[in-house]
Design a protein that fits this description.
Radius of gyration: 30 Å
Strand content: 35-45%
Helix content: under 10%
Shape: globular
Structural class: mainly beta
Number of helices: 3
Keywords: Membrane, Transmembrane, Transmembrane helix
Organism: Paratissierella segnis
Protein name: DUF4179 domain-containing protein
Number of strands: 31
Largest sheet: 6 strands, antiparallel
Length: 475
């Protein structure tokens, strides 16, 4: 392959990595990449020299690159949204794509066990699956290096994060987020910073509709005997009352739910001991689909009757009700919620059964993005003095542009560190901090607490830390 052929291939590779939103470019300069090859008709005149062709193609590459950067790169993001911590993050612009969803880390910065991250999610399939409700929930993850505990090498790690949606762009079907992440001192974040997710919630549809059942026609219910061990939980009942329940409706299929999703259905309806029982079934497990139903009775005037109580049951593939003590959790196929109303059979014709709930949609996959960040230790200040504050000893204090982290010990039964009022004294005035969570070990009486700032903190201007009125001077 000649050098020019290699250059052509390199240029082509550069083109293949450019994503241009053509809807925001002037009509005369629209370039559609990825979806089709760009073809330029050439008349049969004198051949172009290789150097001239290379110069023209390179010019187009530069223009397209500048356009792509202007419409979606780090600089464009900072200028367009002016995020709270935009001045302290650095460009990353790495992405991971799975299931047609692209997760891109636009910019980030890490200070010890705290990090600020700006990232986006975009549907690359054209199906516009991203919505304003799109969320990571418990699917979001940060790679950490947890400490080992115990002789068996068991590891322990914990972290917390605060997620804020910055903007949802309907035109590009792209949503932008800010993540403020804190890891415990015993489980520091990895270097490089690695972020990921195994599922993404795309959206939900909420329902508040009547269930298509004529209550006036409800008869005595077909029942199945149960014992205390068959009850996995409940609402409106106490644990020590479980033994008083001896039967429930027999699981089966009665009718569809108003949302029409096959993952959830009305399992059975009937009268037991003069009360109306309604049993809702759904598949156990699964990250998406309908959540647990909320049921109520309503009369023609809008008066509402809520259930007296609710029982939670689990069944195997044969609808055999499982027991808690038998450790049948691994055999669960279905979950049943039985709602009980104190309404006499003679008055049922006056009521309509209403359902309210939501159906969640999403995708499961594997998204992983690593961010190689520059060393930020120069912007972190630490103290190892034992400072007493209301029965707590602040042994290790770390201050960074993202806030304060404290490790220490406490006396008494309860640790109150995380609820303490913390302020930062600076040359420009007093800055109040917000609680950022933490953890504690009741056996060892140790704690790890965090407080966050609303905007970057200039640690060089800090003169003191004030905790519950106790001023800790910084020299």
């Amino acid at each position: 392959m000649s050098k020019f052929d290699i250059d052509e291939q390199n240029i082509y590779d550069m083109f293949s990595q450019i994503a241009v939103d053509s809807s925001k470019i002037a009509d005369g300069v629209k370039i559609k990449l990825h979806e089709e090859n760009v073809k330029i008709p050439i008349k049969n005149h004198r051949r172009w020299s290789k150097s001239a062709v290379a110069a023209i193609v390179m010019s187009v590459v530069l223009v397209a690159t500048a356009t792509a950067t202007a419409l979606g790169g780090f600089d464009w993001f900072i200028e367009r949204f002016n995020p709270d911590f935009g001045k302290i993050v650095e460009p990353v612009e790495n992405y991971s794509e799975d299931q047609g969803i692209r997760m891109e880390v636009i910019g980030a910065q890490k200070y010890g066990n705290k990090a600020i991250v700006y990232l986006s999610l975009q549907d690359m399939t054209g199906q516009n699956r991203i919505t304003e409700q799109t969320d990571f929930r418990d699917g979001f993850s940060v790679k950490m290096n947890p400490r080992e505990i115990g002789e068996d090498g068991e590891t322990l790690s914990s972290m917390s994060w605060r997620e804020k949606m910055i903007y949802f762009d309907k035109d590009t079907n792209k949503v932008y987020y800010e993540f403020n992440i804190t890891a415990d001192a015993d489980s520091p974040m990895s270097n490089p910073l690695e972020l990921g997710s195994f599922l993404i919630y795309l959206g939900k549809k909420s329902y508040e509709e009547p269930i298509d059942i004529s209550l006036a026609e409800i008869k005595e219910g077909e029942t199945t005997p149960i014992i205390e061990d068959n009850i996995w939980g409940g609402v409106g009942i106490r644990f020590d009352d479980y033994s008083s329940f001896t039967e429930v409706l027999t699981p089966g299929y009665y009718t569809d739910m108003p949302h029409g999703e096959k993952e959830q259905w009305v399992s059975n309806v009937g009268i037991i001991d003069g009360k109306l029982h309604v049993q809702i079934g759904r598949f156990s497990g699964g990250e998406f689909g309908p959540n647990d139903a909320n049921l109520a009775l309503a009369d023609s005037k809008g008066n509402i009757i809520s259930p007296d109580y609710e029982l939670m049951l689990y069944g195997d593939k044969d609808n055999h009700l499982l027991g808690v003590k038998e450790d049948d959790a691994y055999n669960t196929e279905y979950k049943y919620n039985e709602y009980v109303f104190s309404v006499s059979k003679e008055n049922l014709n006056k009521y309509t059964l209403y359902y309210s709930g939501s159906v969640y949609t999403g995708v499961e996959g594997r998204w992983r993005v690593a961010a190689n960040l520059s060393d930020s230790n120069k912007d972190i200040r630490t103290w190892t003095n034992d400072i007493p504050v209301e029965g707590h000893i602040f042994e290790y204090i770390t201050l960074s542009p993202l806030g304060l982290q404290v490790r220490g010990t406490y006396e008494g039964e309860n640790c109150m560190a995380s609820s303490m009022k913390v302020e930062i004294e600076t040359a420009d005035g007093i800055i109040p901090l917000e609680g950022g969570g933490g953890s504690e070990d009741p056996e060892k009486h140790t704690f790890n607490s965090n407080w966050n700032v609303k905007e970057p903190l200039d640690v060089t201007k800090v003169s003191a830390i004030i905790i519950e009125g106790t001023r800790i001077s910084i020299k």
